[in-house]
Design brief:
Two copies of one chain form a homodimer. The first copy, chain A, has 542 residues and is α/β, with parallel strands linked by helices. In chain A, 28% of the residues lie in helices and 23% in strands.
Chain lengths: 542, 542
Amino acid sequence: MLGLMQDWPLLCHKIIDSAARQHGNREIVSRSVEGPIVRTTYRDLRQRALKVAQKLEREGYALGDRIATMAWNSARHLEAWFGIMGMGGVYHTLNPRLFPEQIAWIMNHAEDRAVFVDLTFLPLVEKLAPAVKSLKKVIVLTDAAHMPQTSLANAVPYEEWLAEADGDFAWKTFDENTAAGMCYTSGTTGNPKGVLYSHRSNVIHAMMAAMPDAMGISSRDVILPVVPMFHANAWGLGQSAPMIGAKLVMPGGKMDGASIYELLDTEKVTFTAAVPTVWLMLLQYLEETGKPLTYLKKVVIGGSACPRAMTKKFQDNYDVEVIHAWGMTEMSPLGSLCTMKPEYAGLTGDARLDIQQKQGYAPFGVEMKVTDDNDNELPWDGKTFGRLKVRGPAVAKAYYGGAGKDQFDEEGWFDTGDVAHIDPNGYMQITDRAKDVIKSGGEWISTIDLENLAVGHPDIAEAAVIGVSHPKWDERPLLVVVRKPGREPSREDILAYMEGKVAKWWMPDDVAFVPEIPHTATGKIQKTALREQFRDYRLPTA
Amino acid sequence: MLGLMQDWPLLCHKIIDSAARQHGNREIVSRSVEGPIVRTTYRDLRQRALKVAQKLEREGYALGDRIATMAWNSARHLEAWFGIMGMGGVYHTLNPRLFPEQIAWIMNHAEDRAVFVDLTFLPLVEKLAPAVKSLKKVIVLTDAAHMPQTSLANAVPYEEWLAEADGDFAWKTFDENTAAGMCYTSGTTGNPKGVLYSHRSNVIHAMMAAMPDAMGISSRDVILPVVPMFHANAWGLGQSAPMIGAKLVMPGGKMDGASIYELLDTEKVTFTAAVPTVWLMLLQYLEETGKPLTYLKKVVIGGSACPRAMTKKFQDNYDVEVIHAWGMTEMSPLGSLCTMKPEYAGLTGDARLDIQQKQGYAPFGVEMKVTDDNDNELPWDGKTFGRLKVRGPAVAKAYYGGAGKDQFDEEGWFDTGDVAHIDPNGYMQITDRAKDVIKSGGEWISTIDLENLAVGHPDIAEAAVIGVSHPKWDERPLLVVVRKPGREPSREDILAYMEGKVAKWWMPDDVAFVPEIPHTATGKIQKTALREQFRDYRLPTA
């Protein structure tokens, strides 16, 4: 017997409808690519999104068409999202930091038919467009006055294109499982893989993200998503903020400390989110200038592990609460947030920081477990680590086109590729990537733990740990080190520094000094390249 | 094109699974009907819910079976809910305050096959059971030691019944639109009408209810739902609290000031919810004893309009934030909550109380409009009032068995039967019931506004306003008054008191004095009876 409740599909346009109706005058403030800070409201943004939808439909785009965006966070980018989705299309966020060949590969794989592009990235699109056969139109997010000369025959300035519509358009309706958005993950190996979000998953994720124990955001918050919309949906804020009617502050392309600070201060931002690198720049700026964070209350830090010193600085020096979080493009992206359960809510000082080193716990809507290589579930004891697997309504069940099938099992679990442990209270901590973890005599050694320890040495600029083959133990850890300029720590210095701080059998068997460590386009250590470089390395213990 | 996100149906058992896994040690504290205060945890509650499901299945109950509960708020009642739902059954909450004939009618209409009943209500079930043919089993929520003599052949003590199961049971899975719960509304006229909740609507509603701008509850809250589980799902708290992992405090059958205070204080309750009557008793108790509310932070007040003086007392004298709310059984039940948007967040004193007299705004997931009798939408100007209509994923689309079809239109709007206005910021205020509003010369007069005004007169104990036929204006208001003992206000006194406080054309045409005003079983003024009583009343103006 079915219930008798309304058939009210979870469609993304209902988010912007609700924002316009209940919070119509709330501002969206954007640092424009052209320069000035510009302001609009949810009411106007919805009206312009309707025009986007109307124009796209008139030009022949239809349900299921992938329409790319390559843009900074701005009101224009957001209205493009809602317009594309409301017409039944699929917004496909492109990461401009990838190599042009990689972007072209992604666009061809997705068969993008059009792209909304910021002025900043027009040269990039000019370069790769000839290689993307499906691409029929380039809509440049500016007006005619700022429209540059371009080699692209099919490029139009957004404002003039939009002005041809009157917005007299009714959102399309369709099954809530219809595709709404798309984002490719760029692993360190292999081709990028496409994640295809649905309207349902976006709406449910937006609710999960806003909950008090997740981001805990309300209509009274002023939200600055520094994390880009092309980086896993700005962690859902592009949907959560209008859902709850919070003022949005969009940073455009300027992520430096002074620019971010200006927005935090003049717009009275209470909530923000970004990767640690951005916060390093901000904290450095604050220290140099002695400026306070007057309005900011909470900062979500994810993308990579948040250093303890960063959490401490935000909390102790600026009275800003840090929420350490973890997620993946495949998870829309939120997987866990380190907010405090009552078990930990009373902690202060170092005890609190200890917990905040963890990536937190899975909210309702995310199921989580750790398993060994044979898929046996491991205990939640805060030390036994294994493969981290997740399920949920906002977690991918497959990649677009069918790549990466081995990451999904029959029970619906997605293997994140991360290695983690979970403590008795459900707090998860990432200890490594599965492909980087070192298997020594059947036991696992976390390379990240060793790296974090090594970079604590005052003479080390950067450190990476890889497994090197060993006749007896299969693999043993090799510590690869970049010394700080002018410093000359020895192998023995470094190992002595580490000794006693990790289990004896975790200690690296050797230290190798290099001038630099290879990185991916997104700034991560490229361990594949490093393993290749040290393929024939012979450990002294071998 | 469909998205590629996981098929993770929104099923209620996932709520208790998440609670047990992430918040397994969190307590559920209940004042038992037997007397003592008893404690369990989400982990144990889930285990017992599994046993309920297992036992029910073994005894032949199956998907779609309606299984009634007639019980106070307690851990046992909650585990019965999750057990029934997890087996695929439909929990059907019975309101013991209705007349026995009405309850029997409801049980027959729903075809309840079993009932979980508190000791308190066993005599009531004994009385009505013979009239309910579908009823095969009575499970008395106690143990053998407390099991009384009963005339019911098919009654068993819950604990012994449960002990026959080992809990080795896997929750059933099914479409998320499967019926999960049922509750009948008891209007002032006609037969009760059944609302049939689905798993999906319960889960979505639980998320909506917990959001920061709705109830704003977290795992660190201690939640006391005074509002009964048989009163529109305890306003969703039976699902929201385990979803977020908050400690629950269940009051059992004792709603008097001293009993509620004891729980608030000893269990350090931070959040509670009930109708104004309960809070009148509590506030009176606090005033008599001079006791403080040390831990309580927020109280949700709904069910009927919250008097301004009550809001003021909670906030000014006890530093407890009041959230005025409105909902209906048909809405799962939340429709609006009066939390503060930034437009109002800075208000204090009387200006804040003015806003808090409103029932608040519709969160994402509730669409709301007011219309005239011809279904034309009325402006949000804070004064034009009309029929209040709603849509959403947790709003009914029909009543069980098809009654009340005229309340639902083709566009999915449910006519609430309430009359309200909405202000430019989206804040709705109920001004009357549609069937009570007085239509005078084509314009509407709110009887509730007039009643609220009249009871402000120091000599009036209770007041009701009804429309009486008038040759020129169709209807004009008649004020029906019960005087306070020993007081003798005259017609002229009362009208003089009201004059200048409402529009001139709203002023009652006459005042009638009565010894008492008729009420429904749930304590509401029975205006149908009153209208019947004054059917032939001739106004002096007629």
